[in-house]
Amino acid sequence: MRHESIVEAIGHTPLVRLRVPAPEGVEVYAKLELANNFAMKDRVARQVVTEARRSGALKPGAPIVESSSGTMALGLALVGTHLGHPVHIVTDPRIDPITLAKLRTLGCEVHVVSAMGDQGWQSARLDLLAELMTGLPGAFWPQQYSNPQNPAAYRGLAEELVADLGTVDVVVGSVGSGGSLCGTSRALLERFPELKVVGVDAVGSVLFGQPDVPTRRQSGLGNSLYPDNIDYRLIDEVHWLSDNEAFAATRALAREQKIFAGNTSGSVYRVLTHLAANAAPGTRLVGIMPDRGDRYVDTVYAAEASVTAGASVTPAAVESEVATEPALVRYGELVHSWSYAEISRRERPLLLFVESNTTGTGMLALTTAVRLGLEPVLFVVDPARYQGLAETGCRVVVCDTDDPQALRKAAEEAAGGREVAGVTTTSEYYLVQAAALAEGLGVAANPASALAACRDKSATRRTLLAHGVRQPRFAEVRDPAEVEAAVAAVGLPCVVKPVDESGSHEVLWCGDVATATEQARKLLAVTRNVRGQASAGTVLVEEFLTGPEFSAEMFWADGEAVCVGITQRTVSELPYFVETGHLFPAVLPAETAAAMAGTARRSLEAVGLNRGPAHVELRLTADGPAVIEINARLAGGMIPELIRPATGIDLLDQQIRAAAGLPLNLTPERERSAGIRFLIADAAGRLAAVEGVERAGAVTGVERITVTAAVGRPVRPVREAYDRLGHVIAVGDGPEQVGAALDAALAELSVVVEPEQQ
Length: 758
What we know:
Layout: E1 15-17, E2 27-32, H1 42-55, E3 64-67, H2 71-82, E4 87-91, H3 97-105, E5 109-112, H4 120-135, H5 149-152, H6 155-165, E6 170-174, H7 179-191, E7 196-202, E8 237-241, H8 243-257, H9 263-277, E9 284-289, H10 315-319, E10 327-328, E11 339-342, E12 350-354, H11 361-371, E13 375-380, H12 389-392, E14 395-398, H13 404-415, E15 420-424, H14 431-441, H15 448-455, H16 457-466, E16 474-477, H17 483-490, E17 494-498, E18 508-510, H18 513-524, E19 539-543, E20 549-557, E21 560-571, E22 579-584, H19 590-607, E23 612-621, E24 624-631, H20 639-647, H21 651-660, E25 673-679, E26 685-691, H22 693-697, E27 702-707, E28 714-715, E29 726-732, H23 735-748, E30 750-754
Parallel strand pairs: 2-9, 3-4, 4-5, 6-7, 6-9, 7-8, 10-11, 12-13, 12-15, 13-14
Antiparallel strand pairs: 1-2, 8-11, 16-19, 17-18, 17-19, 20-21, 20-23, 21-22, 22-25, 23-24, 25-29, 26-28, 26-30, 27-29
Helix pairs in contact: 1-2, 6-7, 8-9, 11-21, 13-14, 14-15, 15-16
């Protein structure tokens, strides 16, 4: 086949039939993408670069910058330099010398990070990439993990398969960015709706419900992050192979089929042969083989490649230790060796969501459910309330979510007899409704009575009092005329707050009876909350406890309330109680942290919570920890986003697992510190700008800076959480390092406020 350029020669790869043990009539093929000039991702590089040039995102001669440790880097080197673009590749020390030599010889500039980031090598590479982008005006970042042109590049591969075979019954592919398997299978499913799609991952990769192990040795598949290009709804089955199993399979591929390939191809081969041996007569299977083996001469093919560094064991000895058959596991169960899980593409268990957060974790929870092999269904009053809902692809049912009968009827109709794995919500305002729906459907969940005892802060107080859990003195008020007696009972100063709102909303420190009475009058005049629900008509007057504020991040696992950690909280100046910063984990003596965890645990047992997450707010008084509030949900204030880099535990992921009855994993993967400071206005007016973001983002240890407030919006010194304008998150090896990074970042930031025009 004649081509005018090296770029046009990409694709058109051979399809070869493999000789493997299988029932008569079973056909097994390998699509040799390794026969591209460099590897499979030559296709992606051509698609992404040519489309960017066509759209104007990549100007003539402008630089290309990408994070890659292998074949995507080579593809960009091929296409980018051929078309006249400087190519910068950000990689890590795992890059093999052959690839490094190829990149440099092709004219690329290679930037190697020196150490892992908070989420392994990938996050460190992305941090360096961001620095490079700021110094290279007009640079184009292909973003292989989220660029839709990545999976689009594989439509051509699918067309080649159809042209060569006519029909395909099973396609097997490795998963890293998600582009190859999802792009190929999406195109094939248009023609063959009964196609079985099998993904191959590495043990220690997060892609399919497993904890991250950044030290895994396989390359080209697996990930420490969740790429946008994986469409979990396309995949019917996933297999995980350990490093040793993948490497042994790669050597077997060379020995048995004479295909000298990389470990991605070897992993695909191992799964492909297993499926073929168990296939029905007439089944036609295809495995996608991504890259050649020359990059792996010193690793996969070395005598010591598959054993601990320093050991001297032959490949044959290692291969005798690997699994020869996969173990069938439940999706989400922790795996250590070759295992597989079935994910029914057409009849996945349903996870019902009753409303959602309008920001933050709300939409992310829906996509997390899909990643965990579930089909989310969101029940809402008003879909327009949720920005980004359409992009999730989630099924949406409009109904009255505050009417138990209407909600249950809508849920039963939506389920249509299918399995309902669970019911949950990411909105505090709908905890009781979700629990009641679960009870009505016979699905395991927290008792609705326990959720009601947490949502109604006066009920919380009564319950804790009955169980002897330390807390402030309190009095319930339903008429402003009752405030004076309430203050006499609890003392001054006091705190006056609504019993059914969320966070710091309308919570006020009061130094005298008049202020307390006026605050109670204001709160009792409110008949509907921000979600349009009827207000409780009750106000709490509480003793003001002195002492630093903390929160215990709790999670029920195996019948026990586990303390994931204690958060140290910083709040605004009185009379308001707005969180202005957090540090996780808190700097506390071990016995004090244990006392806080114990108090939080007793409070959860008192109200009857027995499932999922809880966020217990505490004050450390002279007499010990006292419970301020129990929130039967994940912490707000971005605290889960501190816990993740500090420990490796993704609490939102665990919440979805708990709701659906999937296995939990609350074991910390690391011990680091993380902190957040919120951006606030010093004066009332309109936001003109937040200056210094780029300089602050360059501070060592700063993970992200987010400005949430739009320029021009009214601002004021904080009275409630909605007054916060953004945040800075930093991560480090200890609290001093984190504090220094946050201080340095805030010194670079300036919130500019214009006074209101008179």
